[in-house]
Automatic annotation (TrEMBL):
Keyword DNA damage: no
Residue span(s) of domain Metallo-beta-lactamase: 41-254
Protein name, UniProt field: MBL fold metallo-hydrolase
Species this protein is from: Nocardioides guangzhouensis
Xref: SMART domains: Lactamase_B
Metal-binding recorded as keyword: no
Annotated GO MF terms: hydrolase activity
InterPro entries: Metallo-B-lactamas, RibonucZ/Hydroxyglut_hydro, Sec-metab_biosynth-thioest, WH-like_DNA-bd_sf
Pfam families: Lactamase_B
Alphabetically ordered keywords of this record: Hydrolase
């Protein structure tokens, strides 16, 4: 089956339907469950070689995911011990932690982007404070109410270190990776996280896109425990980098396979252009903090108000607004000034 054959149609199963779905010769998509209402599943991609299996992403280290991965591999006549390598797009737990647990049992080799090392350093530091770093960032964004709720939610929480560890190798800079008879181009695409990578099989016209390019939603920007200086600027730069590559079939971490990376990237760029315009207009109308601006903007495809979002999504929305405003500051269109209520944005460089 070709990638074009695997493009979803009206009669195709929902992308979260369990199974080992072929997307190209020797490549299968396995959706694994997530313990949350929003994303529902993460796609793990299995590349077959004579030496064993290479997986792009590993899934979340929970029992349901482990069991479904084992069953799906069994449908291919394979098992967990056949996995020789994980190429992980980024450090988020729904992509990384199951790679760690499978490696612990079977010795698989795990690679991860070097830009995500500061996040792992924070997770794995036994002396690290239990205070969540997002609390102060939310306060600086003027979201005192959300910061207080987040502080209560995260109080004394520590990560489960049984599912976290350093990788065997750090991905650093763009470079080719041989995978059996194919070559994947590892391409550094910071934005969603600082260490995010995508993997391009140009010969087969496939892009294993992780969370960099998603077919139906926009990836979160500016939500990392160790903040990038310009996460949205990084993300837009990474989109331009991938847009300059040939048009490939989009193999996303969340959502169905899509026929064109170029088409979706163009949509994502247009979306952020609109959001930048809305942020600029909101500041011109009534200068304020990132939280003040976020409360003036619509959220999700259903255009909810910020105050109608749950805690997690309200925090995401506030910090994404902050990323848009900081990019406008960097472009000289806005001015940022510290205050007791947080950073206040006004028109003018």
């Amino acid at each position: 089956m070709t990638a074009a054959d695997a493009t979803p149609s009206e009669n195709a199963p929902h992308w979260t339907e369990p199974g080992a779905w072929p997307v190209a010769p020797g490549v299968h998509r396995i959706p694994l469950p997530l313990p949350m209402d929003g994303l529902r599943a993460v796609n793990v991609y299995v590349l077959e070689t004579d030496e064993g299996l290479t997986l792009v992403d590993g899934g979340w280290a929970i029992d349901e995911s482990r069991q479904l991965l084992e069953k799906s591999l069994a449908d291919l006549g394979r098992g967990l011990r056949d996995i020789t390598r994980f190429l992980v797009t980024h450090v988020h737990r729904d992509h990384y932690t199951q790679a760690v647990t499978v490696r612990r049992e079977f010795g698989s080799h795990v690679s991860l982007g070097l830009g995500d090392k500061p996040t792992l350093d924070l997770i794995l530091d036994p002396e690290a404070s239990t205070a969540d770093p997002h609390v102060q960032v939310l306060r600086d964004a003027g979201a005192a109410r959300i910061a207080l709720a987040w502080e209560r939610y995260s109080k004394d929480m520590r990560p489960d270190l049984s599912v976290w560890a350093y990788p065997d190798a750090w991905l650093d800079g763009d470079h080719p990776i041989p995978v059996g008879g194919r070559t994947l181009d590892a391409v550094h695409t910071p934005g969603h996280t600082q260490g995010h990578f995508v993997f391009a099989d140009r010969a087969a016209r496939l892009l294993f896109a992780g969370d960099h390019v998603l077919p139906r939603i926009t990836p979160s920007i500016g939500f990392e425990p160790v903040l990038a200086e310009q996460p949205l600027g990084d993300f837009l730069g990474s989109l331009a980098k991938v847009r300059a590559m040939p048009d490939l079939t989009l193999l996303p971490a969340h959502g169905p396979v899509a026929p064109s990376t170029h088409d979706r990237i163009d949509e994502l760029v247009a979306h952020h252009d609109v959001r930048l315009d809305l942020c600029r207009t909101a500041v011109a109308r009534d200068a304020g903090t990132a939280y003040d601006v976020a409360r003036q903007l619509p959220w999700t495809r259903h255009e909810h108000a910020l105050d109608d979002l749950d805690l997690f999504n309200a925090a995401l929305a506030t910090l994404e607004t902050r990323a848009h405003l900081e990019l406008l500051v960097a472009r000289g269109e806005l001015r940022a000034t510290g205050s007791d209520d947080g950073v206040v944005y006004t028109i003018g460089g």
